[in-house]
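Good morning,

Attaching, inline, the backbone tokens for the sequence recovery test we're adding to the shared suite. The designed sequence is right after.
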């Protein structure tokens, strides 16, 4: 190595390493792949107290929801909205039978959420969530916020099936 190159290396600025986003850091406009299907992130509901987010994903005209929660490991679930009706949060049962599947209440929690982009709830606030699981590992999620219910049915996704294709 020449003397001039060594002197140049002494004064050169170190190269900045670009940190790759985690799926929990995705925002509207980013592109991700879930189980070999590419989606654009169009919305995000984040519950910071649980270190969790529900991303609204769109692939053409199809809309899906990716739930991400960071615990000891990152956990993923892919949901699709379903039709259903409940009148009050006090009426949410601990066991629900839906399409020949019996779902049992696994977790119930509430917390303050922030909203970005296109989501079922257009503003942040206090949100109540009930998460269910059936004996054959199907998932059911019920959300209540501002007097409105949303119901989702889905399944767990292994971490290797979630990739970030483009992050802004």
């Amino acid at each position: 190595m020449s003397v001039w190159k060594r002197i140049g290396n002494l004064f050169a600025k170190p190269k900045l390493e670009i940190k790759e986003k985690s799926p929990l850091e995705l925002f509207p406009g980013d592109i991700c792949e879930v189980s070999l299907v590419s989606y654009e992130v169009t919305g995000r509901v984040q519950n910071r107290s649980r270190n969790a987010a529900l991303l609204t994903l769109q692939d053409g005209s199809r809309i899906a929801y990716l739930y991400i929660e960071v615990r000891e490991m990152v956990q993923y679930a892919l949901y699709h909205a379903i039709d259903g009706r409940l009148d009050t949060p006090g009426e949410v049962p601990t066991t629900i039978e839906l399409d020949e599947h019996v779902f049992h209440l696994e977790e119930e929690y509430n917390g303050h959420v922030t909203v970005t982009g296109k989501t079922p709830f257009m503003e942040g606030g206090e949100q109540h969530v009930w998460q269910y699981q059936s004996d054959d590992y199907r998932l059911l999620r019920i959300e209540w916020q501002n007097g409105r219910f949303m119901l989702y049915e889905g399944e767990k996704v292994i971490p290797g099936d979630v990739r970030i294709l483009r992050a802004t």
